Each structure stands twice: as structure tokens, then as C-alpha cells.
Input
Amino acid sequence: MKMKLQLVWAPVIALALVGCSAGDQTAEPEATTQSAEASFLADDFEVPTRIEADGFVLVPLGPDLAEIDYAAYMSSIEHLQETFTRSTGWPNAELTDADAIADMEREQARFEARESFAYAVLTPDGSRERGCVYVYPGVGEYDAVVRLWVTKAEYDEGFDEELYAWTQSWIASEWPFTNVAYPGRAIAWEEWDALTKSDVDT
Output
């Protein structure tokens, strides 16, 4: 599949634990945490900031995308709770426009700090969000965790399978990871829950 990458240098800031607190019900999915001593990405790795593929474009999430990101996940609350988060915390019907903007500010800050990388998956003209892809620090034997979702309408059209296959190829060819976890996909949720619980306990 044809891809065109536009790369930029992102600022290098010491890693901190990332993700929303358990009580935060307004933000997008919680990032996987990693010890501050561990290296997530080499300092000289150029993080992709615009990726063009056949039928969609990936760009970093940020406040300028708050409106279409909000529209995408609010159109698919039940679907995402069942297929992506396994939680009623995100998304939920109580989220507001202000919550959406605050969430996008957090995602942008994490991206710029090289803590985690959240991408909107847009139509080629940028008018609509089809889903999102997240690249997080690794857990246990994995040096990265990648998660993704698509809206209910896109899922029904078969785009989830297409995006997952494309994402695996993109991560393998353009990122420096050697062992990537895809929770709920390549790794069963039960296995992932046991792994992350063990990682927290240790």
C-alpha cells in the first residue's frame, strides 16, 4: 500500500508517566505507562506527523481537531465501549465540547513531549475522522503498545480490518520497535489484563 511520510523533529523531554487517572472520565483512552528510567524512543528518531495512505490520512491529534474527533467518538459510544475500551468511562454521553478540547490539549502535549503519539485517521480532505491510532510506551516484554479504533459506521464498512492491517505494516516499517503489543487484537484481552496487572504489581 502506498504511503508518503512527512517527518519533523519533535522536542525531546524526559519521559514521565502518561495517561489519565482512573477517575478521569472525560479524556480519551488511557495511555499505557512505562517507567521513567526506560527509553521509549531514541532521541534521534523522527516522529511522523503526516502520513498519507490510500483513502485516509493520519495527523497528530490536537485542539484544531477537537470538533471532528468529538463527533466521531460520540457517534459510536456503545460500539467503542464494546470493541475498544471495555469501559463506560470513555466515551460517554456526558462528555462536553470543553472536555473534548481539554483532551486534545493533553494529547498534543504528550506528542510534543514524546510520551505517546495519538493520531486522527481522517478522510483525504480532512473533513471527517474515521478513527484513531495510538502509539504508547511498552509493557513487560513489549517495547510499544499500539491501539486503534474506527467509528461504528466505518466498522460496518470493513475499515477496522483495513486500518489494523495498514497500521501493523506502518509500525513495522517506519518505527524502531521490535516487539509491539496490539491489545484486544493480536493479544487476547484476558492475556493483556493479566500482563498489565503483573506489570503493575511488580
